[in-house]
Amino acid sequence: SHPNIELNIRNLLRNLLKCLKAIEKSDLIYYVSVFKSTEMERQC
User: Fold this and answer.
1) Which helix (H) or strand (E) holds 44?
2) How far is CA 31 from CA 8, 19, 22, in A?
3) Tally of CA atoms within 13 A in the half-sphere of 21 that contains its CB
């Protein structure tokens, strides 16, 4: 097995995980903000 290729794959996977986590965080923030705005509309 080629250690360089294994390292590259590990780095790719790590970057993918970082991207997925960032997407999850931004989605959560988006959903929370939408939820808050709908709650405010209900109160008014």
Assistant:
1) none
2) 34, 18, 14
3) 6
Task: Let me know the angle formed at the C-alpha of 10 by 23 and 27, rounded to the nearest 5 degrees.
Answer: 5
Q: Hey, is 31 helix, strand or coil?
A: helix
Over the chain (44 residues), the average pLDDT of each successive run of 10 is 88 92 88 86 72
Number of residues that this document lists for the chain: 44
Q: How far apart are CA 22 and CA 26, in angstroms?
A: 6
What is the SS3 assignment for 40?
A: helix
Angstrom distance (rounded) from CA 39 to CA 44:
9
Residue with tokens 């790719």: 12
